[in-house]
Amino acid sequence: MEDEIVLLDFWPSLFGARVRIALAEKGIKYDSKEEDLRSKSPLLLQMNPIYKQIPVLIHNGKPICDSLIVVQYIEDVWNDRNPLLPSAPYHRAQARFWADYVEKKIFELWSKVWTSKREEQEVAEKEFIEALKLLEDQLGDKTYFGGDNLGFVDIALVPYYGWFKAYETFGNLNIESECPKFNAWVKRCLQKESVSKSLPNQHKIYEFSVELRKKLGIESVGI
Amino acid sequence: MATNKEELSLLGVIGSPFVCRVQIALKLKGIEYKFLQENMANKSELLLKYNPVHKKIPVFVHNEKPIAESLIIIEYIDETWNQNPILPSHPYQKALARFWSKFIDDKVVGAAWKAFMTVDEKEREKNTEEVLEALQFLENEIKDKFFGGEEIGLVDIAAVFIAFWVPIFQEIGGLRLFPSDKFPKLYEWSQELINHPVVKEVLPPRDPVFAFFKARYESLVASK
């Protein structure tokens, strides 16, 4: 019997992008259902009653929620190809730790940068860059956080890039000059089809950001 | 596999629910380790060396290699020592266990703490509502003796905060966070959990924990 795999998604979502990348890395065929988050479908509300959020992976009728939990699920089920996590428990724990750091710390600091008022922007941007530098240290000389291949931490982090880049016109951030190692890592990730095909068009994210900032009433320092 | 030559230590504080989680996991597996009591007001060199990123406890150290974050530590322990498994083996059940454990951290722990450690009525109400909403989901979810089935699993271990610490906050703050009439199944589960032979041995004595949080609460009230 063939597997039925559906992904409830929303094109700009970086969380959705994580799942897209994982599915692509494993070469898994699936149906994508685009959600309108202003008018959530009955299916979404049924499949994720607790958070009512995307992404939701529905595997043979059974829902899995929360992007990093979905990625781990994909890894556990399709464990015969392209491992996304290392095999040794200690290295797995480290990968989980850094993915958790992205999930909590990067999310927190990035939210501050994105919503900060003019006066707070500089401090927020500084803290954010420090966090990126910590991740750069973690990457070291490796090609990816996962080593020679894309891994759990790469998947957790790379979808943020489009948003970082889009923000550069609103604030005083220049990721390329401040975090060249991070920038180089992003470029390597983008060379992988699983990543480039899963991330939304850069200009579309920029336009979406502009709209969102207007809606939320956030002023921008930029030009 | 663990041998006598393994060097295992746990940096923590007695009375921390997160440290308790790890201790339950270790006890379940019958793993011996050294407990290194930390003073969070004066963090040790060792803690700063082993968890430079967050500088928090618990930190589990296995042959000089540190692991931080309670749920990540538990998965590590489960993957390293196979006896008495804590996570389910089936990928879907595993995903559910991870989901509910994270839910407890995201939706219960933060709100319960904020409901307790505040003198602002609105904050208290808002956070109490959040806790009650979250507990209702858990009430609907519990189907067996434990979340893990007949034996305790990851979710039960994560939820020890609800069984032991939330009632303490409730009592000190005069809150209605975990009313047994509203959550009968969850209440029954909590009694099974705190009386579970392994959990019972690991839980800290209630009086000192109660006194500690009471002192913190009273100093908050006094400062307003």
From TrEMBL, chain A:
Reactions this protein catalyses: RX + glutathione = an S-substituted glutathione + a halide anion + H(+)
Entry-linked Pfam families: GST_C_2 (PF13410), GST_N (PF02798)
Compartments where found: Cytoplasm, Cytosol
Function field: Is involved in the conjugation of reduced glutathione to a wide number of exogenous and endogenous hydrophobic electrophiles.
Domain GST N-terminal, chain residue ranges per copy: 3-82
Protein name according to UniProt: Glutathione S-transferase
Keywords: Cytoplasm, Transferase
TrEMBL record, chain B:
Catalyzed chemical reaction(s): RX + glutathione = an S-substituted glutathione + a halide anion + H(+)
Lineage: Eukaryota, Viridiplantae, Streptophyta, Embryophyta, Tracheophyta
Annotated source species: Flemingia macrophylla
Keyword line: Transferase
Record protein name field: glutathione transferase
Family matches, as InterPro entries: Glutathione-S-Trfase_C-like, Glutathione-S-Trfase_C_sf, Glutathione_S-Trfase, Glutathione_S-Trfase_N, GST_C, GST_C_Tau, Omega/Tau-like, Thioredoxin-like_sf
Keyword Transferase: yes
Annotated EC: 2.5.1.18
Family membership: Belongs to the GST superfamily. Tau family.
Domain GST N-terminal: 6-85
Gene Ontology MF: a single term: glutathione transferase activity
Domain GST C-terminal: 90-212
Annotated coiled-coil segments of the chain: none
